[in-house]
Amino acid sequence: MKTMRAIVTERPGDYDVMVVKDVPVPPLGPRDVLVRSFASGVCYHDHLIRAGVMKRGITFPLILGHEGAGIVEAVGESVRAHRPGDRVACTQWTECCGVCRFCRTNREPLCAQRKLYGHDRDGTYAEWFRIQEDSLLPLPPEIGFEEGAILSCAIGTVLAAIRDVGQTRAGDRLLVTGAGGGLGVHAIQMARLCGAWVIAQTSSPGKVPLLREMGADEVVVSEDGRFADAVRRVGDGEGVDVVCDNVGAPVFQEALRATARGARYVLVGELTGDQVTFSTARLFLKGVSLLSTMSTSRTQLADVIDLVRRRRLRATITERFRFEEAPRVHRLMVDRKLSGRVVLVP
Ligand SMILES: [Zn+2]
Ligand SMILES: [Zn+2]
């Protein structure tokens, strides 16, 4: 049997539950594609699964990772769109039904049959990974594999949040929470591209130069977690029209307080799984809409590929690590010692 090297998470737990092992190369069903992985993005989602915070649909042992790019190695018998040798980028979901009302209207992330790789299925922390053909798009030669790996999760998600769900328009004031993270650095760029005036919030003073470089008009540093007053001050005293919230519970109260009347608050990430309580009247008295999005459709990924290929937006990889370093990478991510998005390279 053909084997491959993979980072296998044996059970939920601390960093050392991830070990490099030889495991069988996954067999292909008729619609499956085997991709040789050239880079895998590391996402906070991976940490939440490994730590046992996120539980639904997950069985161990599991190969983490839902951010992959590479070259097609082999295809199942009914695959039409791809052939061995193709460069490909992937969505965050590895399969969906293809025929429900969501799949038919470019909203595959809402499909009831949708499976995420590195979550419901084995993922990209491996030399090869298996994915359904519907979840792949050609990766043009102008985009490297490391950049290709993060197009769907780190960029597609914020394109969905800012452009589509948040309906950001030229002149809007937009707040990005957790701006120094993988979603955050791309949210700043995406918001600028949509014509917004961008306020970036971070709790790490060391990340300010990166946020400026990404195009933030204002950076609010809040080591104590209180930032609403500062955001309102730089937001013309009124607050922001759109929030792209990559953090969730820990910043929700402050970010909500920083909104202007009529704002759209878009939830994208949840780093702790904690609960929040708030008065619902606080929303409707200000006419604030609470919205959310979680991952990227095929058409949104196609738009991201075009934007990056035409250099309207830069896929920002801040560091590269070897497979063996996965436990250390997770630790650095949790300790907020990483900026932007990093990749594991097989
Ligand atoms: Zn991700
Ligand atoms: Zn479906």
Description:
With about 350 residues, the protein is of the alpha/beta class. Helix content is about 25%, strand content about 30%. It is built from ten helices and 18 strands. It has helices spanning about 45-50, 145-150, 150-165, 180-195, 210-215, 230-235, 250-255, 280-285, 300-310, 325-335; strands at about 5-10, 20-25, 30-40, 60-65, 70-75, 85-90, 95, 115, 130, 135-140, 175, 195-200, 220, 240-245, 260-265, 290, 315-320, 340-345. Strands 3, 5, 6, 9, 10, 17 and 18 form a seven-stranded mixed beta sheet that branches. The chain has a six-stranded parallel beta sheet with strand order 13-12-11-14-15-16, with helices on both faces. The chain has a three-stranded antiparallel beta sheet with strand order 2-1-4, with no helix packed on it. Helix 3 (about 150-165) packs across helix 4 and helix 3 crosses helix 9. The longest helix is centred in the middle third of the chain and has 15 residues, at about 150-165. The protein is globular, with a radius of gyration of 20 Å. The model has no long low-confidence stretch (mean pLDDT about 95). It binds zinc ion (ZN) (2 copies).
